Amino acid sequence: MKTYDLVVIGSGVGLSVLNVGLQLGMNCALVENTKIGGTCLTRGCIPSKVLVYPADLIRETQHAKKVGIKFNVENIDWDLMAKRMWSQIDESKMIDQGLSTVPNLKVYKGVGEFVGEYEMKVNDTKKSKELGHFKAERFVIASGARSFIPPIQGIEDMNYITNENFFGDRFPKKPWKSLIIIGGGVIAAEFAHIFSAMGTEVIIVEMLPRLTVTEEPEISELLEKSFNNHMKVLLNEKAIKAYMNKNQKVILVKNMKTGVEKEIIAEEILIAAGRRSNADLLKVENTGLVTDERGWIKTNEYLETNKNNIWCIGDANGLYQFRHKANYEAEICTNNIFGPEDQKRSVDYSAVPWAIFTYPQIGHVGMTQAEAIEKGYEIYVAMKNYSTIAKGYAMGFESNQEDDGFVKLIVDKSYKILGAHVVGPHAALLVQPFVYLMNSGFTCTLPEYRDEKSLPKVEKACPEAGSFIPIYRSMVIHPSLNEVTGWAIGNLKPVNIKMEHHEHHHT
Known about the structure:
Layout: E1 2-4, E2 6-9, H1 14-23, E3 28-32, H2 38-43, H3 45-63, H4 78-89, H5 91-99, E4 105-109, E5 111-116, E6 119-124, E7 129-136, E8 139-141, E9 145-147, H6 163-166, E10 178-182, H7 186-197, E11 201-206, H8 217-228, E12 232-235, E13 237-245, E14 248-255, E15 261-266, E16 268-271, E17 275-277, H9 279-282, E18 310-312, H10 323-338, E19 353-356, E20 362-366, H11 369-374, E21 379-385, H12 390-394, E22 406-412, E23 417-423, H13 427-439, H14 457-461, H15 469-472, H16 482-486, E24 493-494
Parallel strand pairs: 1-7, 2-3, 2-8, 3-4, 8-18, 10-11, 10-16, 11-12
Antiparallel strand pairs: 5-6, 6-7, 9-17, 13-14, 14-15, 19-20, 20-23, 21-22, 21-24, 22-23
């Protein structure tokens, strides 16, 4: 039986680790059951943004009336958008071609499953045949995730859409006339934005009481108000049954509070109700891997599984499913696999950022207010609206208007930044500086002084690491949107800060 030095499962972020193994002359294999390039390139963040940006422009033209300009969107060229989108997805073909020329690499295009300890076979499920059977000294599992399909009676007979087949053979020749989206998270919000802007009648069905539950409640509320201007949002409604009525697709929903049921009808159904692990397809139990209660492969701080020489990165470990987090893990995993044992690096997820590219845009890093309190922090919270700064007003934002975006900061009593949250234009850009500040707490180094004893004690302690003090002491470009985040510090208010009482003893 063939034995490889390294087998990587998944051709997204897994390629980063694979490339190092190949450069070191290892005999390697890659296992991939979909297009080469992974979720982000072929059915996720990259192609979706090609569609998000035109939707952004449409919404911006509508917002422009607030500053005295009225635009008419005369033509939506869906074919051009599709052409540009497919040009990105088709980069997969070039990657595939490049891999085929690597001498010490075998690419298996099928579904891999463990059949024993460090032993795997790969099957072509379409042709029901085995493509390979091998062992490996090292496995890196970067197998991603797939759409979670909720238990809706009759849904499997409906030929529904997911992000996987949308960026595949179910991509529409033109925007649907009407669309039901089941789910209210990141993927649902972005698709709702895209299609509502293109003129599709969109209905969101979410069983929870608010959209984007990973975000601050105030952000979810603003998003819901914005969405309700362009689509119908059904919260606390659970999809329980699906069926056809002539040429229309019907979803029967049940109110989670009242139990009342009603029908909603549309041309198409998109399911974006979360992600599920691919560990079941890999049959990881056959090689002794441990998963959590939701099926995600468990890893420690070094991205090691419970089995020696098997690592897991990216969506497959279920932790923060974003490509930039996967890239971060790939770098650490590469170091831990190929570097000296005594120089292993551990992961730190305290400042994982993300953005939801909907309208309005959402940026997020760190804890929410509720999470910080739950973890025992004593905190200050600051909020500042776009309308309160000159640039925000210039852009058409006014106080007490439902589209007035804001920043929310969560800071502990030592001024360390615990979380930053932005909703409004350029939220992803505005939240990024906080990521750098929060990470400064982990990279604080002292300048090289000849006489280290001369360093003031306060500098040795590096008290500003991870705090907002660098912002406090910095100039902020005026007038710019940076002021909405930079000046938010002036609005810090204690939430659960315990006041210290000093006892006076008289003799």
